[in-house]
Design a protein that fits this description.
- This protein is an alpha/beta fold.
- About 40% of the residues lie in helices and about 30% in strands.
- The chain contains 5 helices and 5 strands; from the N terminus they run E-E-E-H-E-H-H-H-E-H.
- The chain starts with 11 loop residues before the first strand and ends in a 6-residue tail after the last helix.
Length: about 160
């Protein structure tokens, strides 16, 4: 039986990936969102960023693009993103005032807080995908993230 407040609709599937050309450097992110028989893509790029920021942004923007409250299966090849939720890092960060196990402030807190808010809006199940292992949707979303980086150069935006 679904939890209260979750629509009785088919699950939404999200494949997300981030990429960087240099780290830091120009970066791109993309998410493929599959709802029933409909598929759509969201993507973007930043002229100077890190791979980790792009991985978080891909998951964040993928979830943000889904209206309402849904059960969502997020597939990512980023251990950084998936382990944060599977292992409860985010709960420790909130309890410790956003201090990591290294006793340093949590990197990318701005994005993590936004992603956590989106996670609370939906019922999210995280799935780790092995990168570059032949999963067709993971390969596609990787290509889309890299294409987003290329769009910076095509648009004449400075990269660094």
């Amino acid at each position: 039986m679904p939890r209260t407040g979750i629509a009785v609709l088919p699950d939404v599937i999200v494949y997300c990936d981030g990429a960087c050309s240099g780290n830091p450097g120009p970066g791109g992110w993309a998410a493929i969102i599959i709802e029933t028989e409909r598929e759509r893509v969201v993507s973007g790029a930043e002229p100077r960023t890190t791979n980790q920021r792009m991985e978080i942004t891909a998951a964040l923007e993928g979830l943000a693009a889904i209206p309402g409250r849904r059960r969502v299966r997020v597939h990512s090849d980023s251990a950084y993103v998936v382990n944060c939720f599977r292992d409860g890092w985010w709960e420790r960060w909130e309890r410790t005032g956003w201090i990591a196990a290294s006793r340093q402030p949590v990197a990318n807190r701005d994005l993590w807080e936004r992603l956590i808010a989106e996670m609370h809006r939906h019922d999210v199940h995280w799935h780790k995908v092995r990168g570059h292992s032949g999963d067709p949707l993971n390969e596609r979303v990787d290509a889309l993230a890299r294409r987003a980086i290329a769009s910076l150069t095509a648009a004449g935006k400075p990269c660094c």
